[in-house]
Amino acid sequence: MSEPVLTISGLNVDYGTGTDAVHALRDIDLTLHRGEVLGLAGESGSGKSTLAYAVTRLLSPPGVITGGEVHYHRRDGQALDLLALSAPELRAFRWQELSIVFQGAMNSLNPVHTVHSQLTDVLQAHRPEMKKSERTARAEELLRLVGISADRLGAYPHQLSGGMRQRVMIAMALALEPEIVIMDEPTTALDVVMQRQILRQLVKLREELGFSVVFITHDISLLIEFSDRIAIMYGGRIVEEAGAADIYRDPRHPYSDGLLHSFPALHGPRRELSGIPGSPPHLSAMPAGCAFHPRCAKKVEACDSHVPVLAAPDGSDGSRSVACWLHRGAPAPAVARS
Is residue 299 a part of any domain in this protein? Predict the structure, then answer.
């Protein structure tokens, strides 16, 4: 495994304050290694986008980071505390070292500005020494990089297809050649053919430029195809983390298994789609113990009252982790006091 480029330790995020606060993220520990694609999967409301916005310091009120650390590791070995950066330092850091492709390209692109204007605006803000002709040349290069003809620079967002708008967002994110690109459901609302085209383009760019990717989606089948590792989120926690092949062949958490059996296999024998009964918990009324136990067919007694810790399962070589009492010694049940 390569060296880490981003480490998240004990990250907690609330929406609101005091007794009415909703705990959106709870004790998130995650490491992104240099040059890898880390997939982040889970149902809507599991905390995936909140994690992305917390790491990039883009949380809107009433979102509050209440604990934890986020460190960016430069190639020279220096570690940068992202939660301690001042506003000017944060402005210089974003897009230069870490960029984000937001969910919904049509909502992210300004409808009254051309593609040229929006691509060169990034360059003008962060590379003021560049001449206008150099910025235009770089914008043309970025479009070609994502498979769009340079003659579309003068187009407005509404004149582009959904896939082309998404590629423009990817081009914008790569403008300053950052080390990390966070992609928040970039293929939402696109047809499956366009999804695969964009993913193939992304893999090619990653191989050429060497950046790291955090790819957020509710569709785990997409992540199986091109991610190096996958982290599964549920109820504001990470419940399983492992290599993509390990998750596909042998999911250890019942929630991961349920996600995998919620879409049809493209190869091999037919299998019945089982899905997951019930709905995700409301973050303001989380069940005691394991958050997934009301929907879990494999729950044990400890699940009702004890929260499992994300750790290596019994007998594992340490390459994966899971938060489930099925894979380690369950705690003794509480003794009722007389």
Answer: no
Residue 15 CA neighbour count, 13 Å, CB half: 14
Check: CB of residue 14 under 8 Å from CB of residue 22: yes
Q: Indicate whether 277 belongs to any domain.
A: no
Other CB atoms closer than 10 Å to residue 152's CB: what's the count? 17
- Quickly list H helices, 146-181: 162-173
Residue 14 pairs in a beta bridge with: 23, 64
Distances from the Cα of 62 to the Cα of 16, 27, 47, 82, 228, angstroms: 5, 19, 15, 20, 34
Residue 186 sits in the same domain as residue 221? yes
In b/e form, how buried is each residue of 92-119, taking b as 16+ CB within 10 angstroms? Answer: ebbbbbbbbbbbbbeebbeeeebbbebb
Q: Which domain holds residue 122?
A: 109-177
Which residue type is seen at 311?
A: A
Token pair in block for residue 27? 């004790």
Examine the domain organization and report whether 152 and 231 are in the same domain. no
| pTM for this predicted structure | 0.90
Residue 291 CA neighbour count, 13 Å, CB half: 24
pLDDT in tens, 208-263: 888 999 999 888 888 888 899 999 999 999 999 999 999 999 999 999 999 988 87
The total number of structural domains in the chain stands at: 2
